């Protein structure tokens, strides 16, 4: 049914440098999340007359670190440009950005990223990387359709953003999603970015289906939505092509509630932005020493870490891949290995029930109440025989929800496996008394013993050690036979 | 350089006015079309000079690498920030709804 038409996808990703303390061009705090509106603002990020921006050195270094990690060619000299347009999210009526076409000089260009998708390696080219400021946030109380006005909060205005643009090298939505996952992990390993913060990574995508025009989709804010928006758009375009409808270039908006793309009002075209060199900022000359210094500071990146996980901990490639897919998860794993020592069960628990719990509770690894030492504690309870694997799954859930340690959960819920022989013998004695027919059967037919074991389990609410119970019942039956 | 003569049309002036969110009268459109063409004429003359061996001037003061360190400085108080706003609401700037 589906037309076998080639698909080309390119991404434009905006990542906030969330590890910075201050904004890109002023000293306002970059920790704006959850703050009352317009409390992290100053003359610079409000665009008040006469205010002068000054570049945050750390922001440039972080952007360069990203450029190196993405194998880019670094510019010798780079400068900022004004991108002019009128919209209330920009108090200055221009955004300080970098111009990437002829006459401009972005920070870095011509890189590549390799990632895994469906167990095969794929490389996409990075066209360029540049620095720019984040605009403010528009709020429409009651929804955009209802609100009679637009409210503006400039706390986000001036936050350092790195824009990363790929070549149109993706051939499917899942490739685009896998790339973003990899990019997130790289940025997190560089220590410049925390992907669990809302809106820290946003993305525009352009899609073209063989025989159609190039369509840009704006406003995609999560990995899942990238895949959804692209899939929707590809089906829509294939449908048009199948019907013989001609369509040209267009910008569409991803509506994450309705999960459709809708056509956007025609906005400015490239030449309408009237880019020109930002006269308030001096050019940045990037010397070889700085590059050498940054290369030396380059931390271990996901690919190297994955190899190390395979080598050092004997993990299967797939497990290593999943763990390093998110820095916080890989860190959690290594912390836990330090305490508990056995990498494989830790990896299995993390990739199985742990991630499942996080997913259902919709929390990130770093927000999660279970810490590495708590998981280690739980695994030790399994090893000691205090809890079964089945119970451990329930224990983990409780730990996730309440933040209590495994030992406390087991104690409070009475989930400790019963291995006390004296107590079990008492229970067995009672079961034998009340089920004399079953005992007679068991004396003749060995299989009938299961009924008795089941009764013991019933009384102990499943907590009796099954092996021990079995052994004790057999011994008691043997005694009866001998009598 | 033998380039074709550049010329600004009246509709381009109207487009520029829209980009700058300026409402122009018919007389102003006429006047600005003429004035912009005079400016353009001047640039056309500048273009006659061969600058292919001259590096571009990004900045007139010749300084490079002016940075600030990543340190947080006090922000304005919200009342100060909103002081000159013609319309405000609950700590926000209020703007006409943009669709």
In short:
Chain A has helices at 57-69, 173-189, 223-242, 288-297, 302-313, 317-324, 327-340, 343-361, 372-384, 389-402, 406-413, 421-434, 436-444, 449-459, 466-482; strands spanning 7-16, 55-56, 73-74, 77-78, 81-84, 94-97, 108-117, 120-133, 137-139, 149-153, 160-166, 201-209, 215-220, 250-255, 260-263, 276-277, 284-285. Chain A has 483 residues and is α+β, with helices and mostly antiparallel strands.
Question: In words, what does this structure look like?
Answer:
The complex is a heterodimer of chains A (483) and B (99). The longest helix of chain A has 20 residues. Chain A folds into three domains: 286 residues, no CATH class; 114 residues, no CATH class; 62 residues, Arc Repressor Mutant, subunit A (Orthogonal Bundle), CATH 1.10.10. Chain A is 41% helix and 19% strand. Chain A contains 15 helices and 17 strands. The N and C termini of chain A lie far apart (76 Å). With 99 residues, chain B is of the alpha+beta class. Chain B has a domain of 45 residues: Glu-tRNAGln amidotransferase C subunit, N-terminal domain (Histone, subunit A, Orthogonal Bundle). Chain B has a two-stranded antiparallel sheet with strand order 2-3. Chains A and B meet through strand 2, helix 1, strand 10 and strand 17 of A and strand 1, helix 3 and strand 3 of B.
């Amino acid at each position: 049914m589906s037309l076998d038409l080639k698909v080309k996808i390119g991404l434009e990703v905006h990542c906030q440098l969330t590890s910075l303390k201050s904004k890109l061009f002023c000293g306002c705090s970059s920790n704006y999340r959850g703050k009352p509106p317009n409390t992290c603002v100053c003359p610079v990020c409000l665009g008040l007359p006469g205010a002068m921006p000054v570049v945050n050195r750390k922001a440039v270094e972080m952007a360069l670190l990203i450029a190196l990690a993405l194998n880019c060619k670094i510019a010798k000299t780079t400068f900022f440009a004004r991108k002019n347009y009128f919209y209330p999210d920009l108090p200055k009526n221009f955004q300080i950005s970098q111009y990437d076409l002829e006459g401009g000089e972005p920070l870095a260009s011509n890189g590549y990223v390799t990632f895994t998708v469906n167990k095969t390696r794929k490389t996409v080219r990075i066209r360029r990387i540049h620095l720019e400021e984040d605009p403010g946030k528009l709020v429409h109380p009651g929804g955009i359709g209802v609100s009679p006005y637009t409210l503006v909060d400039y706390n986000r205005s001036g936050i350092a953003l790195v824009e990363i643009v790929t070549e149109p090298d993706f051939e499917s939505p899942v490739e685009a999603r896998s790339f973003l996952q990899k990019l997130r992990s790289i940025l997190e390993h560089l220590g410049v970015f925390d992907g669990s913060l809302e809106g820290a990574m946003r993305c525009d995508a352009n899609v073209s289906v063989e025989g159609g025009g190039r369509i840009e989709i704006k406003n995609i804010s999560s990995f899942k939505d990238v895949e959804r928006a692209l899939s929707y758009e590809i089906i829509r375009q294939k449908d048009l092509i199948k019907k013989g409808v001609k369509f040209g270039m267009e910008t569409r908006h991803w509506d994450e509630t309705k999960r459709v793309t809708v056509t956007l009002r025609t906005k400015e075209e490239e030449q309408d932005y009237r880019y020109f060199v930002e006269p308030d900022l001096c050019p940045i000359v990037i010397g070889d020493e700085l590059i050498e210094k940054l290369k030396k500071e380059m931390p271990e990146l996901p690919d190297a870490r994955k190899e190390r996980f395979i080598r050092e901990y004997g993990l299967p490639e797939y497990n290593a891949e999943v763990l390093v897919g998110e820095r916080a998860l890989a860190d959690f794993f290594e912390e836990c290995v330090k305490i508990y020592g056995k990498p494989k069960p830790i990896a299995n628990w993390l990739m199985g029930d742990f991630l499942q719990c996080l997913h259902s509770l919709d929390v990130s690894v770093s927000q999660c109440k279970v810490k590495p030492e708590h998981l280690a504690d739980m695994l030790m309870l399994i090893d000691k025989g205090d809890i079964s694997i089945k119970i451990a799954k329930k224990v983990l859930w409780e730990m996730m929800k309440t933040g209590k340690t495994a030992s406390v959960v087991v104690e409070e819920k009475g989930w400790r496996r019963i291995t006390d022989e004296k107590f079990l013998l008492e229970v067995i004695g009672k079961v034998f008394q009340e089920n004399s027919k079953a005992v007679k059967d068991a004396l003749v037919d060995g299989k009938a013993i299961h009924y008795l074991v089941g009764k013991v389990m019933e009384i102990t609410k499943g907590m009796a050690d099954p092996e021990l119970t079995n052994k004790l019942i057999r011994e008691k039956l043997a005694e009866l036979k001998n009598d | 350089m033998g380039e074709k003569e550049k010329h600004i049309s009246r509709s381009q002036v109207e487009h520029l006015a829209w980009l700058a969110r300026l409402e122009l009268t018919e007389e102003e459109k006429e006047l600005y079309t003429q004035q912009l063409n005079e400016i353009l004429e001047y640039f056309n003359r500048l273009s006659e000079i061969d600058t292919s061996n001259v590096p571009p001037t990004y900045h007139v003061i010749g300084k490079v690498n002016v940075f600030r360190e990543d340190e947080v400085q006090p922000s304005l108080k919200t009342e100060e920030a909103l002081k000159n706003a013609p319309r405000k609401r609950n700590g926000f700037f209020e703007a006409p709804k943009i669709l």
